[in-house]
């Protein structure tokens, strides 16, 4: 019985740890107005495919191939990149994710100048696809 309890404790420790270790500051909150921003490309499979291409070029180094926040460059940062599979990201609205991509927060750059609005929405779509 003691072995089962020890195993459960170790399992929970690493399960909870893997969610928090790779999640950027839990206090990074978008303004409430971001919740109201609607995704004009929601459900658009071509936009999602384009989002994947952009993600692989610009995001994978920090956020990792599967979006877990474990990319090679991200592992060297003091503030770890967001884990897109974490519950706290899944519950964010598309507008909040779009706002974060647009504005950034150090060490993540803001992409308002680098990517068009459509490209940022395409990334939102792809991030949602990673969750599935």
Question: What are the SSEs and their pairings?
Answer:
Blueprint: H1 2-21, H2 45-58, H3 60-63, H4 87-90, H5 94-103, H6 117-130
Structure, explained:
The chain has a single domain (about 30-130), classed as Cytochrome Bc1 Complex, Chain D, domain 2 (Orthogonal Bundle). The protein contains six helices and no strands. It has helices at about 1-20, 45-60, 60-65, 85-90, 95-105, 115-130. Helix 2 (about 45-60) crosses helix 6 (about 115-130) and helix 5 packs across helix 6 (about 115-130). Residues about 1-25 have low confidence and may be disordered.
Features:
single chain, 132 residues, 50% helix, globular, disordered N terminus
Offer a quick outline of the entry.
The chain is built from six helices and no strands. The protein is mainly alpha-helical and 132 residues long.
């Amino acid at each position: 019985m003691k072995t089962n309890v020890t195993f459960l404790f170790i399992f929970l420790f690493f399960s909870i740890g893997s969610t928090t270790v790779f999640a950027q500051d839990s206090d990074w909150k978008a303004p409430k107005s971001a919740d109201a921003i609607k995704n004009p490309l929601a459900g658009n499979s071509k936009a999602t495919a384009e989002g994947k291409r952009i993600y692989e070029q610009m995001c994978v180094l920090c956020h990792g191939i599967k979006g877990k926040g474990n990319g090679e460059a991200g592992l060297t940062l003091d503030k770890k990149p967001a884990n897109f599979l974490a519950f706290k990201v899944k519950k964010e609205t598309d507008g909040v994710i779009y706002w974060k991509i647009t504005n950034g927060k150090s060490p993540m750059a803001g992409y308002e100048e680098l990517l068009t609005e459509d490209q940022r929405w395409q990334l939102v779509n792809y991030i949602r696809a990673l969750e599935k």
